[in-house]
Structure formats: C-alpha cells, structure tokens
Design a protein that fits this description.
Helix 3 crosses helix 4 and helix 6 crosses helix 12. Strands 1-5-2-4-3-6 form a six-stranded mixed barrel. Strands 12-15-17-13 form a four-stranded antiparallel β-sheet, with helices on both faces. 52% of the residues are buried. The chain is α/β, with parallel strands linked by helices. It contains 18 helices and 18 strands. Bound molecules: 1,5-di-O-phosphono-alpha-D-ribofuranose (RI2) and uracil (URA). Uracil binds next to helix 11.
Length: 505
C-alpha cells in the first residue's frame, strides 16, 4: 500500500509509525504489529501505533528515528506492508510459560531490545518473565554476554582498571561521587558508568548530572579516564551495553529490578569498560532490594560466580541499608551533600564510612594496598579526592558549580516536626523514596528530602525531623499529604501507625 509520510518531530526511542485506523484495518494490522516501510529501495521494520483521528487516511506518521533512517520528508511517498512479529516474542512467551531460554534466544531478544524491535508491552513481558519465572545461571551468563556483545567496549592499553557498582535500593546512596575521585586520585583507573534511578529517587547518573554532563561516548569515557583517572557517565547515553537502559526504562515505573536483569545489567557495564577488579555494593535491610545479610551473601555469591564466568575479579560488600545513606535524598541535595563532604572532609558518618570502605575494598582486591580503608581515608582527608572530583567535573563538562552551596535546591519547602520527645526508632526507606519522588525527584533535580534526625538520635517535641524540597507548589502539597498519612520517620514508642488515623510522627 502506498501512503505519504507525515514526519512527527518526536523521538520514539524505537522504529515506530502511526497509522490511521482504516488504513491499518485495510492492510490487516493492529496496535503493536509490525510493518515494513520502504522508500527508494531502503526499508525498515516498524512497530504500528493506531492514531485514531490524528492521522488522516493515506498518511503515515513517522517518528524521528525512521525519518532519519530513510531520509524522509513530509509528503514523501512510501510503500508499506505487514510483516510478522520477531521470533523474540515467541521466546518471551516461552519463558512466561516457565521454560528456559537458549543462548541464541537470549542473544536474539537482547539484539531486538537494542534495535528497538520490541513493543513496550513485549519488553515489559520480557522483564516480567524474569521477575516471575526467573533464570538459571547459564541464562544469566548468556544474557550478560549478549548485553556486552551488542554494544561497544573499551580497552585500556595501560593502567590498572577497577570499577564499583551498587545494586541500589537504599535511598541517598551518593557514595560513587566520593569513591570515584578517591580511586582516581590514587592512580588507578575507574571508568564508571551508572544508571539513572530504578527504584530510588536519584540514581548516580541523576546525581552527577547536577554537577557535570554525563552524556558521553565510549571514546570520551576512555579519554577522560586516561586524563583524570576516572569518570561518572550515564550508561544510557553511551553505546556500552545499550540494552541496559532500555530495560531499566520499563523497570522504573514498576519499581522492580528482577534478579537476572540486575546481575546482567551491573556486570555487563563492568565487563564492557575493561575493568579487571570490581567491587559490588549490596545494601541490605528493610525496604531495600535485599532484606537480610543472609540474602545479601547469596547474591554476593552470584556476583562472584558471574564475574568468574566473565573473567572479572569480583568482591562484594554487604552494606547497611536499614536507613538512608547520609542525610539527603534527591539529585541536587545528594550532589550537595557529596560535594560538601569532600570540601569539608567531614560529614555524615554513614556516607564517609561506606565510601571509604568500598574504595578500600577496591584498593585491596586490586593489590594496590593491604590497608585499603586507611589509604582511602588518607586520600579523602588530604583534600586530593575533592580536587579530583572538581577535575573530573571540568573534564566531563561542568554545569558551572564551583562549590556545594552554589547548587540550586527546590525553593518550595516544608518541615515536618516531631510531635513527641524521644528518639528516632525507625526510618522507612520506601516511604522516604516515595516522598522524594512525589516531590518531583529525580526529574526535578531540586526536589528531595533532608533528614534531620536518623535512627537513635534524640529529638525534642517540635524539632525538625525531615524537610521536603520541591520545585513546584503542587508537588510539594502532594508530598506533604503523603507524609502526613505515611510518616517516614518513627519517633520512640512501639506504635508505628494508627488506623484509620495515621498520625504518628
Ligand atoms: O537505587 P536504584 O535506583 O534502584 O539503583 C540504581 C542505582 O544503583 C547504581 O548505583 P552506582 O552506579 O553503583 O552508584 C546504579 O548505577 C544506579 O545509580
Ligand atoms: O545498574 C544497575 C543497578 C541496579 N540494578 C540494575 O538493574 N542496574
């Protein structure tokens, strides 16, 4: 069938087209089916969206990706005809019925993820298949290797390359902003790629982006690492394990991180940047991805085994995830706390201890030092880590922030005060994250929370417990409403909530 192109100035993130419902019916396709679009002998396969009333008969809405690929302009004539769904869809269906993927099937699925050949619902089914049915270790290894092989990789001809990664899940985990400069200042190389938030209110890429550009090519990551010793780049902007960010995009709205995807996502990024020694942070505690140290140990064993299969020397740190790391949650607040701590060489003990502990672990497993923690502490206290972070920020492309107090924080704020005198007995991670997300994080960089009192700290009636920051008044309102019904900080006593009136703060 011949139709005329209407170029839609929208990036769909995949090859997709919009068809008038009657034209779609005429060639026998429905929402999510595939068609081939042909112009001057060149063709692409595209996922169909039905645009009820928005695209007139005889026209086809083409998103930017297809327009660029086929060099299409408004009014150009193209040929279209229906084609069948990729075989990956059949493999995904097989997993949903409880079967095991083969190596070839996983490669085919990951290639289709990278090429944008899967509709949103098919990609979601792939993630849910892992979440509900799971994968065995062979499948996890094959998926990780497919994720590495379908992207670009970095090789360093000289230097000792190390890397760290967290499985995430604990709010306020800004430790990479301290660890990377400590390692880089020691002379080791750390080409770190991070993801954006998955279940939290700010991923490391969201936090670093407050200070510097995080969109980098593979060549830039290598060049900056060789120049400064380290980078903190957003994995989704590179062509390193490009399937990863596409998978994370469907995990984020569901706030789930299935174990097979988690292992593959983390280890593909480490394998592709040429790291030899890798430290994995596994936060364990209520309201995180790992509820106990025992469960953390099991996951640590899986990381070490996957590392062995990929030729990487992996060590894990099971860390205290029972409450947020440091006192801030949300991109700008976390960047502020990380930079302030480096500037003043003091700050929240959970943030400093964790950062030095993981940097120290990297020093030890790479053979750089036996007293890893002490070496990391010396670099931190000497101010070299602070100077190094500033150097990395400049090399990546600074956002013009020279010191922590220059970082803009949301201007709308509300302080929740304690209604009792006593001590903080609990901080509920998931409520803290929900609160920061309702306030606008991670999209609104200035949104988030500042935690005034952490577990065990004493409060008087009327003392501030938590300050909520937002960039817009209505988001602040929503966040306050939530906090009133779901107090994130519990002061003394044994009663967590009263139902139907939850007002225990
Ligand atoms: O907490 P959630 O959002 O689930 O996990 C995602 C975060 O965990 C990892 O942290 P890092 O890169 O090791 O610092 C990821 O890169 C990402 O920033
Ligand atoms: O990078 C990451 C971190 C946690 N979970 C993932 O799936 N990827």
């Amino acid at each position: 069938m011949k139709v005329r192109a209407a170029v839609l100035p929208i990036n769909a993130g995949k090859f997709a087209v919009a068809l008038n419902q009657d034209d779609a019916a005429e060639i026998g396709v429905s929402e999510g089916d595939r068609i081939r679009v042909i112009k001057s002998g060149k063709s692409v396969s595209a996922i169909v969206q039905i645009a009820f009333g928005l695209i007139s008969r005889g026209k086809i809405g083409v998103y930017e990706e297809i327009a660029a690929e086929l060099n299409l302009k408004d009014g150009d004539e193209v040929d279209i005809y229906p084609i069948s769904r990729p075989s990956s869809v059949e493999f995904i269906r097989k997993k949903l019925s409880g079967k095991k993927y083969s190596r070839e099937e996983l490669y085919s699925i990951i290639s289709d993820v990278v090429d944008g050949n899967l509709a949103e619902v098919e990609l979601t089914a792939f993630v849910l298949g892992s979440y509900l049915v799971g994968m065995d270790f062979d499948e996890i290894e094959w998926m990780t290797k497919a994720m590495i092989d379908t992207g670009e990789a970095i090789e360093f001809e000289k230097g000792v390359v190390v890397d760290k990664h967290s499985i995430g899940g604990v709010p306020g985990n800004k430790v990479s902003l301290l660890i990377v400069p400590i390692i880089a200042a020691s002379g080791l190389l750390i080409p770190k790629t991070a993801s954006r938030a998955i279940t939290s209110a700010s991923g490391t890429a969201d936090t670093m982006e407050v200070l510097a550009d995080v969109n980098m090519s593979v060549e830039e990551i290598k060049e900056i690492t060789l120049k400064t010793g380290g980078v903190i780049a957003w994995g989704g902007a590179t062509n390193i394990a490009p399937a990863d960010d596409k998978i994370i995009r469907v995990e984020y709205p569901l706030s789930i991180d299935p174990r097979p995807q988690l292992l593959a996502s983390v280890m593909a990024k480490k394998g592709a940047v040429g790291a030899r020694h890798v430290a994995i942070d596994i936060p364990a505690g209520n309201g995180t991805k790992i509820s106990s140290v025992e469960e953390g140990r099991k996951l640590a064993g899986e990381f070490v085994e996957l590392g062995r299969r990929l030729g990487l020397n992996v060590s894990c740190a099971i860390t205290n995830g029972s409450q947020p790391v440091g006192r801030t949650v949300g991109p700008a607040l976390e960047a502020w706390e990380a930079l302030k701590t480096l500037e003043e060489r003091k700050g929240s003990s959970s943030l400093i201890e964790k950062s030095l502990g993981i940097a120290g672990l990297l020093f030890e497993i790479s053979g750089f030092a036996q007293d890893g923690y002490d070496r990391a502490k010396m670099i931190f206290e000497s101010g070299k880590a602070h100077q190094k972070l500033l150097e990395i920020i400049q090399a990546q492309g600074s956002k013009g922030i020279l010191k922590s107090d220059d970082i803009p924080i949301g201007e709308e704020k509300y302080v929740i005060e304690s209604k009792f005198e006593g001590a903080v007995v609990d901080i509920l991670n998931q409520r803290v994250v929900r609160l920061a997300r309702l306030a606008g994080a991670p999209k609104d960089k200035g949104a988030g929370v500042y935690i005034h009192r952490k577990r065990g700290e004493v409060v008087k009636k009327g003392d501030p417990l938590i300050t909520i920051y937002a960039e817009t008044a209505w988001k602040l309102e929503k966040a306050i409403e939530y906090a009133m019904e779901n107090p994130p900080i519990v002061v003394s006593g044994m009663i967590l909530e009263k139902y139907p009136s939850f007002k225990v703060v």
